[in-house]
Automatic annotation (TrEMBL):
This is Peptidase C-terminal archaeal/bacterial domain-containing protein. Residues 29-61 are annotated as: Disordered. Residues 30-40 have a biased composition (Gly residues). Residues 44-53 have a biased composition (Polar residues). Coiled coil: none annotated. It comes from Halosegnis longus.
Length: 515
């Protein structure tokens, strides 16, 4: 497990945002009350089969479920309808309700995926990295188009595209404690968390079992992922470029576990030897399972805990019920460890994370919940491996008035909560996914706009009534943006609230101060 990057470079302005300081930062002059500070925004991929990559002509125009194909983005390709970037359109026939996983990888460019429906409208688009992934549930029957292109919209080169229909569990070969067996990674399956080429092996375990899983292979750059009975990640190995890898951990519950034996390098397939042993039994510490508004409860991070779905650090999952627009505060304190706090929704999507916004090395999250449902606070440590006792407090400040998932207007002297999602349009400066928020103003009005989020590096654009850009900002503060402007004319302005990458989604706060 590799700890997430440190927050040490964050500025004092981000500290204010995280500690509930939007009012002090952006609206203090307006005399408004407190606000929730910086507000945030993985879910596990279902297991399914993929075919071995098959060379195809440079212009790849169709793909079917279960296929992995190769193609080339070249200067003669079309432009995707969402970003107007050079991209190859690949068609696929789908049915309403189909759950699919799409993945593109390229050595030539930073890949981007856009999927449009039979009506030509956007169905979804990927986040941006060298291995772009996207999971969707198709809304209607018909022919869909997967647009494979680059992040900058102009790069060309070869790519690999995989399409899987998810939802059906891949059968894994059963093994037991005391087993030493061999197997082969063929490229037919990928693991449900990281998308690495892997083969599933299943075994029964009990809460407190101390286990050792060891893989040796001269063919693979070996990888091990242990998934629990509930589908959560129990443990995962790092890529250390050797021919061995191991997991030594404590099982958190009774049930059937799945070991994914795979490779970090999809070009290196072949045979492996797997050893699975029970090395002991562990009683564990005091487990905390639930918390409610107004409570402070004690728990213990120990070797029997699982790994959180964001940083994959050892952490204790504590659930609570919340409603959309609840303005909450979570405090994780400990005298034993340097804490780290992760908050996720029912789908496992990150709502907020924090290292040390509390006193000393303690963690604090202040945020507004995006939806009704059961949330999970993962009480963990900065290192991802330390153990020890902690206290977790949950408070509700109230409900944010007038906030909806789609923020469409804001008035000077106020703040509100919005949500950047895949259905939002693109901003006119970077052509990135952003939420358009209308702000009505008059000529010579002075305004200051502040955007806060705990999930992505924010980006702000202010556009005038005539469509001209009045200002934009991607602040050096890691996750906060602000811009100050004197409005040139009367009319309706548009504040585009988005991310620096142009593809991130999640909850944010927007505050407008009159100057």
């Amino acid at each position: 497990m590799t700890p997430a990057d440190s927050d040490e470079g964050s500025t004092s302005r981000r500290r204010l945002l995280q500690a509930g300081g939007i009012a002090a930062l952006a609206l203090g002059a307006a005399g408004l009350g407190g606000s929730p500070g910086s507000i945030p925004g993985g879910s596990n991929t279902s297991e399914a089969e993929t075919a071995t990559p098959t060379p195809v002509p440079a212009d790849q125009r169709a793909i079917e479920y279960g296929e992995t194909v190769q193609g080339t983005v070249d200067a003669g390709d079309e432009r995707d309808p969402e970003h107007d970037g050079l991209a190859e359109p690949v068609s696929v026939a789908g049915s309403a309700g189909d759950r699919i996983a799409v993945e593109a990888a390229s050595q030539a460019f930073d890949a981007r995926l856009v999927v449009t429906g039979p009506d030509g409208k956007l169905v979804g688009q990927s986040a941006t990295d060298e291995r772009a992934r996207l999971e969707l549930r198709l809304p209607t029957d018909g022919e869909y188009t997967i647009w494979v292109g680059s992040r900058d919209g102009s790069a060309t080169g070869e790519y690999t595209l995989s399409l899987r229909q998810t939802g059906e569990r891949v059968e894994g070969e059963a093994i037991g404690y005391g087993t030493r067996t061999t197997g082969t990674v063929t490229g037919q399956h990928t693991d449900p968390v990281f998308g690495n080429v892997a083969t599933p092996r299943d075994f029964d375990g009990s809460e407190g079992d101390e286990i050792l899983a060891l893989v040796v292979s001269d063919d693979l750059n070996p990888f091990l992922l242990l998934v629990g009975p509930d589908g959560s990640t129990v443990d995962v190995t790092e890529n250390d470029d050797t021919n061995t890898t191991r997991i030594e951990t404590v099982l958190p519950a009774d049930g059937e576990y799945r070991l994914w034996v795979g490779t970090h390098d999809s070009a290196r397939l072949g045979d492996y030897e797997l050893t699975l042993e029970q090395t002991g039994s562990y009683a564990g510490g005091e487990n905390l399972h639930t918390i409610a508004y107004g409570q402070t409860r004690e728990g213990e991070i120990d070797r029997s805990d699982r790994r959180d779905p964001v940083r994959y650090g050892v952490a204790e999952p504590v659930t609570f019920e919340g409603n959309r627009n609840d303005w909450i505060r979570l405090d994780l304190t400990s005298e034993a460890v340097d804490t780290y706090l992760v908050l996720v929704d029912e789908q496992g999507t990150a709502v907020a994370t924090d290292d040390d916004s509390g006193a000393g090395t303690n963690s604090r999250i202040e945020t507004v919940l995006p939806d009704d449902g059961v949330y999970t606070a993962w009480a963990g440590t900065y290192s991802g491996d330390d153990t020890g006792a902690y206290e977790l407090s949950l408070a509700k400040h109230g409900a944010v008035p007038g906030s909806t998932r789609d923020l469409r207007s804001i008035e000077p002297g106020t703040w509100a909560v919005g949500y950047v999602d895949a259905d939002d349009p693109s901003d006119p400066v970077r052509d990135g996914l952003a939420e358009p928020v209308t702000l009505t103003g008059k000529a010579d009005d002075g305004v200051r706009v502040v955007m806060g989020t705990d999930v992505f590096d924010s980006f702000l654009v202010l556009v005038g009534p005539d469509g001209s850009v009045v200002g934009s900002d991607d602040s050096p503060a890691a996750e906060a943006s602000e811009l100050t402007a004197t409005l040139p004319s009367d009319g309706a302005y548009t504040v585009w609230a988005g991310s620096y990458t142009g593809s991130a989604t999640g909850v944010y706060t927007l505050a407008v101060e009159e100057r």
